[in-house]
Design goal:
Pathway: Quinol/quinone metabolism; menaquinone biosynthesis; menaquinol from 1,4-dihydroxy-2-naphthoate: step 1/2. GO terms for molecular function: 1,4-dihydroxy-2-naphthoate polyprenyltransferase activity. It holds the Pfam family UbiA. This is 1,4-dihydroxy-2-naphthoate octaprenyltransferase. Keywords: Cell membrane, Membrane, Menaquinone biosynthesis, Transferase, Transmembrane, Transmembrane helix. It is a single chain. This protein is mostly helical. The chain has one domain: Farnesyl Diphosphate Synthase (Orthogonal Bundle), CATH 1.10.600. It is built from 13 helices and no strands. The chain starts with a helix and ends with a helix. The relative contact order is 0.13.
Length: 298
C-alpha cells in the first residue's frame, strides 16, 4: 500500500506542484491587506488547484504516451508508464478521478463564493484537460506556453484572492506576472529538452516553432522579466520593499541560464533543467509570499 501511494504521488509530479501552490497562496495572502484571512477557504481553494494540476500532469503523461510523443527513447515526465509502475489505463482513470475531485471542490467554492469562481475553475479544468487531450490538444499546437502563463499566473492568483474577498484586483493581476513567467519557464525548459523527440512525433511546441536558438532566448527572457517585473512593482509600490528579497534567488536563476547556455542542446545537460526551474519558481514564490505576509502584519 505504501509503495502504491508513492507511485501515485510520483505520477502527480510533486516537484511541479508549487506552480499552483504559489499563486493561490499569494492571492490569498494579498487579500489579508483588506480583510481577515479565511483559512478554511484558502485550504479548499489550494487543494482544488493542486488537484487540477495533478490531474493535468497525469493525463498529460497518458496522452503523450498514447500519441507516441513520449517513447522509451525520449522518456517521459514521470516515467511511470515506461517503468511499468502503472498501466496507461490506470494512469488515465487516476487522472480523471483526481480531476473530478478538483471539480467537486471548485463547485463547492463557487456555491459559497459566487459564479466568478465557477468561471475561473471551468477555464482551469478545461485548459488542463485539453492541454494534451483530444480534440484540442493545445500543447501540440504550440499553445502550451501562453496557456501555462494564464492558468498559473492571473487565473490561479485571482482565484486565491477572489475566494477571500469576492472581488478582483489590478494589483493582483500585476503580481501574477513574475509567478506566471517563472512557471512558464518550467514548461519551456521541458520543451527545449524535448525539441528533437517532439519534432519526430510531429507535434508543434513554441520551441520547435521558433527554433533552438530563439527558444534559448525566450527562456532567458522569461527568467529575466520575472525579476525586472518585481523591481518595477516594488518601485511603483504594488509590492512591498521586502519583495526585493526575491533577488536572493538570482544566483540560482543565473546558474540555470548558464546551464542552458553551455548545454549546446545536450539532453543529458538539460535533463533536469525543468526541475531546477521549478525549484527556482518555488524559492522565488515563497520569498514573495513571506514579504507580502510580513507587510500585511505591520
Amino acid at each position: 500500500m505504501k509503495d502504491k501511494f508513492k507511485i501515485w504521488l510520483r505520477a502527480t509530479r510533486p516537484f511541479s506542484l508549487t506552480a499552483s501552490i504559489i499563486p493561490v497562496t499569494i492571492g490569498a495572502i494579498f487579500a489579508t491587506k483588506e480583510s481577515e484571512f479565511q483559512l478554511m477557504y484558502y485550504l479548499l481553494s489550494l487543494l482544488a488547484a493542486v488537484l487540477l494540476q495533478a490531474s493535468s500532469n497525469m493525463l498529460n503523461d497518458y496522452d503523450d504516451f498514447i500519441n507516441k510523443v513520449d517513447t522509451k527513447e525520449s522518456g517521459s515526465s514521470s516515467g511511470i508508464i515506461f517503468e511499468n509502475l502503472l498501466t496507461p489505463e490506470e494512469l488515465s482513470k487516476g487522472g480523471r478521478l483526481v480531476l473530478t475531485l478538483g471539480c467537486m471542490l471548485g463547485l463547492f467554492l463557487a456555491f459559497k463564493k459566487g459564479p466568478f469562481v465557477l468561471i475561473l475553475g471551468t477555464i482551469g479544468a478545461l485548459s488542463g484537460y485539453f492541454y494534451t487531450g483530444k480534440p484540442l490538444m493545445l500543447k501540440y499546437r504550440g499553445l502550451g506556453a501562453p496557456l501555462i502563463f494564464i492558468i498559473f499566473g492571473p487565473l490561479m492568483m485571482l482565484g486565491g484572492y477572489f475566494v477571500q474577498l469576492q472581488r478582483v484586483s489590478t494589483n493582483v493581476l500585476l503580481l501574477s506576472i513574475p509567478v506566471g513567467l517563472l512557471t512558464t519557464a518550467i514548461l519551456h525548459a521541458n520543451d527545449i529538452r524535448d525539441i528533437y523527440h517532439d519534432k519526430k512525433a510531429g507535434i508543434k511546441t513554441l520551441s520547435i516553432m521558433v527554433g533552438k536558438t530563439s527558444s534559448y532566448y525566450i527562456y532567458y527572457g522569461l527568467i529575466s522579466l520575472s525579476y525586472i517585473s518585481v523591481l518595477a512593482m516594488t518601485y511603483f509600490r504594488v509590492t512591498p520593499m521586502w519583495s526585493l528579497l526575491c533577488l536572493i534567488t538570482l544566483p540560482t536563476a543565473l546558474k540555470n541560464i548558464n546551464k542552458l547556455h553551455i548545454s549546446n542542446g545536450s539532453n543529458s545537460e538539460l535533463a533536469t533543467l525543468d526541475q531546477e526551474t521549478a525549484k527556482l519558481q518555488g524559492q522565488f514564490g515563497v520569498i514573495l509570499i513571506i514579504s507580502i505576509l510580513f507587510s500585511s502584519m505591520k
